[in-house]
Amino acid sequence: MVDAGRGDSARQPWYAGITSYQWLVLVIASLGWVFDVFEGQVFVASMRDAMPALLGVSADHPSVSQWNDWAFGSFLLGGALGGVLFGVVADRIGRSKTMVITILFYSLFTCVTAFAQTPWQIVLLRFFVAMGVGGEWAVASAMVAEVMPTRSRPVMSSIFHGSSVFGTLMAVTVGALVIGNEALGANAWRWGFAIGAFPALLTVWVRWKLREPEDWVRAKERARTDENAQVGRLTDLLAPPHLRNTVVGVSLASIGLVTFWGVHIYGKNALLRRAQATALAAEGIPIKAPRKTSDRKEYKARRNEAFAKHRGAIKRAEMLSMTLNTLGGGLGLVLFGPIAMRWGRKRTFVMYHAVAFLTVLVLFQGLLARDAPAFQLALMLPVFGFFTLGMHAGYAVYFPELYPTRLRSTGSGFCFNMGRLATAAAFVVFGLVTVTDEQKAVLLAPLYLL
Fold first, then answer.
1. Chain centroid offset of residue 396 CA
2. Cα Rg for the chain, rounded, in angstroms?
3. CA atoms of 192 and 439, how far apart (whole Å)
4. Residue 292: is its pLDDT beyond 80?
5. C-alpha to C-alpha distances, 158 to 239, 257, 321, 400, nearest whole angstrom
6. What digits encode the pLDDT tens for the residues 267-285?
7. Which of 15-19, 62-66, 175-179, 349-353 is predicted most confidently?
8. For residues 357 and 388, what is the distance between their CA atoms, to the nearest angstrom?
């Protein structure tokens, strides 16, 4: 990788000498990633609305969780395929061209989801959305790494990955103002997905302003005359000297992505559960179901009526919980790079993973299990988010460093998105059993210690 900052003093601040074009690359790459994450998180914001509406059942019906798990599994499989496929494509035809394709992929298929009529259609469309989502990260992370000076790269890569929180906050905003808008009726979730078409406009700016990194241009020229320097050759990742790096990268991504989709996102349930308890208390309904089987049907009907009556307050609590979780996660993402520059990559990953495990136990087995008040949950959520999400910035920092230019997008995309396969397998299993979101998070927490 060419060091644009070669000869700079090590004592210079990371932002010294960054050109306007390098800042532009960071902005465009980050916007692509912001919208990328929005397309993924808008489903999370609507998962208690879309599937129940299509199935004709309540949001807490077991079939809703089952179909949502299958949709997650489909999304992760699509991300794995798209990340590897578009990673190879980016190494072969260029970063900017491939970025346009991936953004169009995820924005248009998210918009089409607004017209879904059955649960299986959402499951299928999430696969195609994820192909673009997985591919965009591989392309954008490689471009940021190749354009930035060496001394700036960890911080810039952390900023790039940290920008994802704005995508989640966009999804939260859509969830609160659109999906949770009672005036729009039961089909309000469809408008949330329709908004997903807007990122397609970003492709115009990408094609107008971005040029291919000089490192990639040189690697492409070298490949024309050197058979051993071919770009985007997937088999090279699984052979020495790259095999060990690939195993390390895939392992890190597998832990991070399984726990993201199975642990981190359920932080949004913290204040939601408190709001549900408040709704039941307001209607004079006990929180725990009666022991007699004959009484449970009536209890469920009354409970669902209470949740429907207080739907707006419950949705706002869910979105507030998601916001606090995301803000903490964003800070964890942005700070990963500076911490890694001081402590090193390995020690930083170990610290994030160990504390993440502890925060899961505190939130799900401590605070939620003993019905802690809302303010305690609100204080805990940013800490939970910081450590359960923050290590993901390490993938944007570390993975591009593992490979030469000719394999950078291919390798980064392969590592990050093979982790999605492990996550998809986990959700296929969870889709076959009855388990609550909170139980799922606790069962997966030990992965942080691997």
1. 13
2. 22
3. 28
4. no
5. 29, 17, 24, 12
6. 878 898 889 989 999 999 9
7. 349-353
8. 8
Structure tokens at 438: 């909170």
Spans of all domains in the chain? 20-212+230-449
**Chain mean pLDDT for the chain:** 88
Residue type, 105: F
Q: Kindly report the CATH number that applies to the domain delimited by 20-212+230-449.
A: 1.20.1250.20
Task: Kindly list the distances between the CA atom of residue 269 and the CA atoms of 128, 239, 288, 438, in Å, as whole numbers in the listed order.
Answer: 27, 43, 17, 8
Place 229 in a pLDDT band, splitting at 50, 70 and 90: confident
pLDDT tens across 1-44, in order?
444 444 444 567 888 889 999 999 999 999 999 999 999 889 98
Residues 6+ apart with CB under 8 A from 180: 49, 188, 311, 312, 315, 316, 319
User: Which residues are within 8 A (CB) of 47 and not within 5 positions of it... i.e. 6 or more apart?
Assistant: 64, 68, 71
Q: Is residue 310's pLDDT more than 60?
A: yes
pTM (2 d.p.): 0.80
Q: Do 42 and 192 touch, CB atoms closer than 8 A?
A: yes
